[in-house]
Amino acid sequence: MRDAGRLPPGQSLTLKWPVLHQGTVPEFDPQTWDFRVTGLVDRPLRLTWDEFSHLPMTAVTADMHCVTRWSRFDVRWEGVAFSEVMKLISLQPAAKYVMVLAEQGYTANVPLADLLRPTTLFALKHNGEPLPAAHGYPVRLVVPHLYAWKSVKWVRGLEFMTADAPGFWEQNGYNIYGDPFREQRYSV
After folding, report:
1. What is the C-alpha to C-alpha distance for residues 21 and 134, in angstroms, rounded to an integer?
2. Residue ranges per domain, the chain?
3. Low-confidence residues of the chain, pLDDT below 70?
């Protein structure tokens, strides 16, 4: 398996999908839910649930790797490609990093270049079904080439920035980038 290049060092393959997150599973109200884009954009963007959920959808099949040492192969996600959101904003040239904003104040930092990959999307479905609440319903960012803590559950927005800044787990000892193939688990 590892020779094929899919299973990062220190990871074990599983068919299960463990539930791990900070805080409680938030309630979803489609009447009050919104998605906001701020920071280094010419005009802030706000989308209602109806607007966001009607953006063009795509599907991505990718492997998922958790910092707690499990990996799942061939996970099928359906949702809004990151590039679709980019079409709705006018980004300032100085923007190089993004703080992903989620429910309950959770944040994760990701370089813009990583989010622009074609496999990055805002997932609304997992393996053909709506995301379970414990896995991020209604929207989960999926960044398959990084550890799963960067695939933020319950996403509510993005803040574009000039410089990298630590998100929640990075402030608590996790690696600033999180590449599973380089075992970038912790900052030490």
Report:
1. 8
2. 36-65+73-182
3. 1-4, 17-18, 20-22, 188
The dihedral through the CA atoms of 75, 10, 148, 114 has a sign that is negative
Q: Computed over its alpha carbons, how large is the radius of gyration of the chain?
A: 16
Report the candidate in 74, 77, 64, 76 with the shortest Cα–Cα distance to residue 8: 64
Q: Which parts of 44-159 fold into alpha helices (H)?
A: 49-53, 82-86, 112-115
Measured distance CA(57)–CA(78) in Å, rounded: 7
Instruction: For residue 186, give both structure tokens.
Output: 């912790």
What CATH class does 36-65+73-182 carry? alpha beta
User: Cα–Cα distance between 134 and 148 in angstroms, integer?
Assistant: 14
Q: 């463990």: which residue's tokens? A: 18
Q: Tokens for 34? A: 């919104």
Q: Which DSSP category does 127 fall into?
A: T
Per DSSP, the three-state class of 51 is helix
